[in-house]
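new request in #modeling-help
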Amino acid sequence: MKVVVLERGERWGANDFEQSDDPRYIQKVMDIVVARSTVAFRTGKLVGGASINMDGGHFRMPSKAFDAKEASGRRYWPSAYSRATLDPYYAKVEAMLKVRQFAWTEIPKAGGLFAKMLDAAGCSCERSRMNYTDCIHCGFCSQGCKFDKKQSLILNYIPLAESKGAEFRAKSTVDHFEPDGTGYVVRYQKDGVAKEIWAQRLFVGGGGIHTPALLLRSKPWLPALSTHVGEHFNNNGEHAFVGVLPPEFDDLSSYQAFMGMDNAGMMSFHFWDSEGFSLHPGGGLEPSVFAASFADPSGMDEVLPKRSWGLEYKRFVEKVYPHRIIAFSTLGLADGHRAVVLGDGGAPDIVDRNRTTYDAYLDRVERNVFAVGQKSGIKLVPTTPRRLAGTTSAHLLTSCRMAESVADGVVDPEGHVFGYDNLYVCDASAIPYAMGVNPALSISAVAERVVEKAIAKG
Ligand SMILES: Cc1cc2nc3c(=O)[nH]c(=O)nc-3n(C[C@H](O)[C@H](O)[C@H](O)COP(=O)(O)OP(=O)(O)OC[C@H]3O[C@@H](n4cnc5c(N)ncnc54)[C@H](O)[C@@H]3O)c2cc1C
Ligand code: SF4
C-alpha cells in the first residue's frame, strides 16, 4: 500500500523546540481552539500531533471504564472491546513508545508532595507510567522536548512508517473530502495553494475537534453521515484543583512549583472503584496561567490575594507561588456535555449541551477532593468556578464516537464510518466514552486495532 499523510502543521524536531512560555511560540506548537462559549481547548499542531505537547502519562484503561453504560443501559464500548481484548494492542503501543513505570528517583518534588498530601488523608497513589526516557526535569514538556527524552511520534511511529515508504506532507491543511469511485478525493491547501489527492482508503485522524469539523465540512458530499457527528464531546472528566501548602507541611524552601516535569509523575486510583475518577498531579502552572485561572478566586479568600493583578498579587507570585502551590486534576467517567459544530468559515466551534449529569459528577468529585484537603490540612479549590468548569482541557474525546450501530454513533467497532466504504476515523474522536485515565495510550491502541482490521480486509 502507498501511504500519504497530510498534516496541516510543520515538521519540527528537537532542535526547533524552544524553552519558552511566549504565547507567540506556544501558538506555533499548540493549537488553542477558542470557541464562542469561552471554551479553549488545547491540541496538537505539528507533524506528530499532540504527542509533541503531551505530558507523558500513559495508562491502560481499567476494566470498569470499558463497562460504563448510558442511562438506557447501553454499554458505550462495543462488545468487541474490553481490557482483555485491547491488552495486546496496548502492549504494542507501550513497546513502541517505551512506556514504563517511573522509579521513585525519577519523581519530581511536586509528585512527592502530592503523595504526601494523599497519605495524610489516608488515600493511596502510585508512580505514573510514562513515555519519558532519562528525563532531565527541565519542565518544558508542553513546548516540545528539546532533548528527545519524551518519546513523541516523531521518534518512533513516523520514522518507522517512512522507512516502509510512507510520505508525510507537512503544511497541508485538509478542507474536506468527497467520494469518488471506490475512494475519496481529498481537497487540501499546501502553502496556500489548492491541491487534491485521491485515496483508495481514507483514515481521518484530526483529533477530537478537527475530525468532526472535517466530516461536517464534507457532509454535502456525505449526506448519510450519522447525526452523532460532533455530539457527546467529552473532556474526560478533567477538573483541576489547586491548593496552597501550609509552611509546616514539608521543607518547601527548595521546591520550585514550576520545575520538574509538566506531569508530576504520580497517579491515584484511590477513588476509582467507589467514585469512578482518578487523580493526577500537574507540575507547576506558569504564573501567567495561574493568574488567569484566578480571575474569580471565590473560596480562596484566606489563601489567595483578592485580585490576580497588582502589588499584592505580585508579592504572592514572588513569595508563595514558587514554593507552596500544589496543582492536580481529576480524570473520570463523566458524560460529555458539549458538541463540535461548524462556526465562521467552516472552522470548528463548540457549543453547550445538557450538563445535568456532568454537574452531578463535579459535585461528587469536589466533595471527595475537599475531604482530602480537610484531612491533609490543605485548602483545595477548583481552578475554575463551576459555571466555567471543563472550559479548558487537553482531553478531547468522543465527538465521532464508536458504536454498534448508526443509531448510536458515527463509526463501527472497526473505526469504519457508517454508510461509507473505505472511510475510517482513528483518533480521540472515535473513543466511545470518557476513560477516566490519560487517553493517549488507549487512543493509540484502538488505532492499532482499526488499522490491523483494515489491512486484514485486504
Ligand atoms: C499539553 C497537553 C498535554 C497532554 N498530556 C497528556 C498526557 O500526559 N497523557 C495523555 O494520555 N494524553 C495527554 N494529552 C492528550 C493527548 O495528547 C491527546 O489525547 C492525543 O494526542 C490525541 O490524539 P489524536 O490523534 O486524536 O489527535 P492529535 O494528536 O491532536 O493529532 C491530530 C493532528 O491532526 C492535525 N490536523 C487537524 N486538522 C487538520 C486538517 N484540517 N488538515 C490536516 N491536519 C489536521 C493536527 O495538526 C494534529 O497534528 C495532552 C495534550 C496536550 C495538548
Ligand atoms: S521535563 Fe523531561 S520530557 Fe519534559 S521537556 Fe524536559 S527533558 Fe523533555
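bot summary: Residues 46 and 63 are 33 Å apart (CA to CA).
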